[in-house]
Predict the 3D structure of the following.
Amino acid sequence: MLFIRIFFCLFLGALSAAAAQKIKQNLFHSASRIGPQSPYQPPAHSPPAVQQVKQDFREPLSWRYPEPPAEEEPRFPPDFELRTPKPVESIAAICGENSVHVEAKKDLLGTGRPVLSSDVTLGGCPAVGEDPNAQVLIFESELHGCGSQLTMSDDTFTYEFMLHYSPSPLGSSPIIRGREVSVSIQCHYLRKHDVSSGLLKPTWSPFGDDKYSEESLYFSLRLMTDDWQQRRPSAQFLLGDMMKFEASVKQFHHSPLRVIVDSCVANVVPNVDTVPRYTFLGNSGCLYDSQLTGSSSRFLPRSQDDKVQFEVEAFSFEQDNSGMLHITCSLRAIAAASAFSNTNKDCSFADGRWKDARGNNHFCSCCDSDCGKAGGSDLLTLGRSKANQHHPVTSLSLGGTTRQGSLPK
C-alpha cells in the first residue's frame, strides 16, 4: 500500500514538471512573436493650473534707501601754493638801421620741450635759418616787412613786430600741450640826433663866462672802447659784454678835483623813479653788481683824479623785451687833496671780499652796511652837466642770447 502511494506521488510530480515545461515553452514562443516590451510607466497627470493674482500692498513699505554719508570737511595742506610760472628769456632781437634780427630758442616756453619750427613766425614770416647746436630759430626782416607797425611821437618813431607761436596738434591726436603766445618786439629810433660828439669849445670866452666857469662844474659819463682810449661810437651791446664807463669832471680854473661816483641806477625808461630799476652802484662808491650777480664788474685803478673808470657786465631786465637800458649816475667832485674815507672810495667785490681800486680796502668795509653821506666841507658846489645837473644819463641798446657773439654787431 505504501508502495502504491509513493508511486502515485512520483507520477503526479512528473506530470507537474511536464506541464510546467510546456507552459514555459508556450510563454517563450508568445514572447518571440510579440517582441521586447517597454517597462511599465504609470500614466502622466497634468499639474493643476495656478491662478496668478497681482499683489496689492495694503500698507506702506517700511524700507527706505539708506542715507548718504555725511560730507567731510576737505583737508588741504596748510602751505599749499600754486606753482607760479617763471619768466624765461628765450627771445633776443637787434634792431639795425633798416632791418631787425630776431633769435628765438626752440624751448620757447621754458618747459624743456622744443617747439616745431613751423609753429613760430615773425608777423607771418617763417624762420630764415636754424642753429641746430644751440637750438635757436633765426628771423630777419626789413623794418617795413613781416607785418610791422610804425608809430611816431614827437621824439621817436617805433617799428613793432609780433612773434607768434601757435602750437599744432600732437601727432594724429587732437590735443596740444602749449598755449598761443605773442611777443611784441619794438625797435625805437630817435627822430632828432645830436651830431656833436662833445661840448662846444669856443676859441674865446668873455670875462663873464670865465667867472661863471669858476663857480660851475661840468660832469660827463661816456662809454669807452675796449682799450679805454676813445669814446665808443655805438651804444649797442650783447648780453655778457663788458660796458666800459668813464666819468669825469671838467677842471676849468678850479684847483685840482677828484670825481666820485656815488650811485648808478638802470631803468628801461629815462626816469630813475620808475620800475623796474637796478641800483648796481651805490653807498658812495660800492659797485654791487659783482656781489649780487657774481659778475666781473669792477672799478679800475685811477690814472687821473678827475676821471674814474669802471666796467659793468651787460644785462637786461627779465620781463622787458625792448633791449634798452637808461643808466643814470650821481657824480660828485671833491678837492683832489682830500683824504680818503668811507665816502671817497672806488670799491669792487672780488674773491669774496671788498677791495678798493687804490688799495685802501678798509674803507670798503662799510659797503655791506651804511657808508654815510659826504660831509659838507668836502663837497664842492655842484655844477651843470650836459645831461641833467650832476646826474649824467647814458642810453644803451642791449641784445643777444646766451651764445656770446652769436648776433651781428
